[in-house]
Amino acid sequence: MIQAKDLEAGELAALLHFYADAGVDWLLEDAPIDRFAEFEAQQAAREQVRRAQVPEPEERKAPSRAAASAPLNPPPSVAVPDDQAVAAARFAADSARSLDELKTAIEAFGGCNLKNSARSTLFMTGQLSSRILVIGPMPNAEDDRDGAPFSGRHGQLLDRMLAAIGLSRDTVAITNIIPWRPPGNRMPSPAETAICQPFIERQIALAEPDHLLLLGNFPARFFFGGTSGTIHSLRGQWRDVTVAGRTLRALATLHPQELLMAPANKALAWQDLLLFSQALRTGSSAEQP
Fold it and tell me: Which residue windows are coiled coil (predicted)?
């Protein structure tokens, strides 16, 4: 068997990239590590922190003599309900008064289980001078590794898509609905999406864009509502979306991954980009003929 010490630097880098693209999240250690026990310990520690932050009711602080003499039969521990995690995310998001504060709040937030398996917490990049915000679904393996949205091949194709209509990463802002990569690039659950929703809504409220370019089926359904329909039925149409009390114009098109998997769809994406560019030039959002 070839040892790592026998590989050149370039060969070792290529091997590590291959493992990352294949979804390998952990490297073998010299001694075995019980990841299940490690995860349970992390969960127990977070639960202790959460309980310490919640004030006890008065009756629990001063129990009666009968209660003190009764045998102790503590109830079994339960997971934090999703609605409490959503409320905590909403409070953290609403408390941020700037994008920098919001970035710090998301990085410190521990109420979403996706953060436990992700390497990076992704946040908005780019510029807001154009008042254009490009929104993708969730990070993939390359994004998680590089710590920036739309890295690797997807990012390169997105750069070409933007350049085709005179835009670039230097003139638009780019973000994802979900700030953490789901394990194995799976779709986020409804509960995970609900927990992350306050963060993307607050990003939009603080960034104040005029136009949204939604990439892929997940963002289109997220902003247009409903769980039916595909990107092929949702794309190419300007729609009004209301975020934090403000109405914005949004256009959905295919995600770069869908174009890499089916290059014939590039013609459809090009039609959408022309429609988007037309609205930027004329200030109108006419429907595609």
Answer: none
